[in-house]
Amino acid sequence: MDFHCHLDLYPDARNVYAEASDRVEFVWLVTTSPRAFAATSKVLLASEKIFISPGLHPEVAGKRSGELEMLLSQMEQYSGVGEVGLDGSSRYKQHFELQKNIFQSVLQKSVNLGGRVLSIHSRSAAKDVLCLLESHPGYGTAVLHWFTDSPSQLSRAKEMGCWFSVGPAMVASANGRKLASLMPRDRVVPESDGPFAKVRGASVMPWEAASVASTLSEIWSIPVEEVVLLLRDNGSRLTQVLAEGKSGR
Ligand SMILES: [Zn+2]
Fold first, then answer.
1. What is the rounded distance in angstroms from the CA atom of residue 186 to the CA atom of residue 173?
2. Which residue among 133, 144, 177, 226 sits deepest, i.e. has the most Cβ atoms within 10 Å of its Cβ?
3. Is 140 helix (H, G, I), strand (E, B) or coil?
4. Angle at 146 between CA 6 and CA 18, to 5 degrees
5. Which residues form a coiled coil (predicted)?
6. ω into residue 137 within 30 of 0, thus cis?
7. Could you give all domains of the chain from N- to C-terminal order, each with its CATH number?
8. CA of 137 to the centre of ligand 1 (A)
9. β-strand 140-145 against 50-53: which pairing, if any?
10. How far is ligand 1, taken at its centre, from the CA of residue 148, in Å?
């Protein structure tokens, strides 16, 4: 399973789609803008295994904010939303207020729709992400993807019931491993974050997301077979939440 993948952005997306459909039980294909979502949905069809969600990545908030209304209406048809969130790093900070407005609108819409599952980007902005989540009770389920903030923000997220998607690239760094050691084990799912996330120079593929189990086994000091079962169980619980959302609540 792969709970955060930009499958449409691999250079050979159609082949990756075909191979992922063969080899992976479930892929959450997150998109970066409402227009990209519309285009991707025409080329790569959603299936039992490939779930495609509308999103508006905080890195493109400046350019794509005009598409917010489109996103809000797309959200009505889908139980999952992503990629959304905030990015407080120096490169994207100039549009931070705009990012916040967009994320707030997404959360408010999620509340109005009875809850959504959100794949959330929180680079250098976890504190603000968590504050906004807290101020929108009933937003649904938050999956914090590639969480890189402090242990204290992580523990706050854990208390708030957030999930975490963790990939091979994340646990390649010492800080990533430290944070993974503190995560609630029953709310961790694998992700590739490909093609952006790379290990030894190569993009992580959707079918490689599950390989995070071997590193988690070392970090958590439990046998790899147990981690595999745990991740599978977590994954089916989360896909269940997505499936329930689809039938409308
Ligand atoms: Zn991403």
1. 22
2. 144
3. strand
4. 25
5. none
6. no
7. 2-246 (3.20.20.140)
8. 24
9. unpaired
10. 13
